[in-house]
UniProtKB/TrEMBL annotation:
Protein name per UniProt: Uncharacterized protein, YigZ family
Matches recorded under InterPro entries: Impact, Impact_N, Impact_N_sf, Ribosomal_Su5_D2-typ_SF
Entry GO CC: cytoplasm
Pfam families: Impact_N
Organism in which the protein naturally occurs: Pseudozobellia thermophila
Family in the record: Belongs to the IMPACT family.
Positions of the Impact N-terminal domain: 23-128
GO BP: regulation of translational initiation
UniProt xrefs under Gene3D superfamilies: Impact, N-terminal domain
Amino acid sequence: MEEMNDTYQTIAAPSQEALYKDRKSKFYAYAYPIESEEEVKPIIEELRKKHSGANHVCYAWQIGVESPTYRANDDGEPNNSAGMPIYGQLQSFGVTNVLIAVARIFGGTKLGVGGLISAYRTAAQMALEQSKIVTRTVKTLFKLNFEYAQMDIVMRTIKQRDLEIVSQKMELDCELIIAVRAKQAKETEEIFEALHQVRLTPI
């Protein structure tokens, strides 16, 4: 059986503004780390305000690791001349959970489809080159419920397995939420299920 890949590359923080110029057209490019599609719209709206003279704010994003989802938006530029070249840079750099947006201010000279593809691709590349690329681990969350008497054995198991505690409620009945590397999730589940007084629920 093929081992699951539970790490991915993304960017640590939003990039600095990158500016690419071609025949007086200006392409302002930005890269952002994102966790969900809902984050995209507010960022694009903010960029439209910031670059109120921009004719187009084109973008592409990708989210997920095993079966990622993505979107590429040309925002009125000729079909596939902006969004897909931007998306191509996400693939080229091997990053996910990232949005790249490029605001174009028209300089009076048409660039043609080939010129646009090249400009949007270069601007997106510049934004990613200015970003710090980091490796992250996919985590699976479990909830553990147990009585106080089981505290020692649960904590010892967590320490032995080097598991991360996300939150804890310690009363007569205890509740812990732990984060486990995705590839260790099944094994962790089996270990806690063997402790009969501990109830484990995937979140």
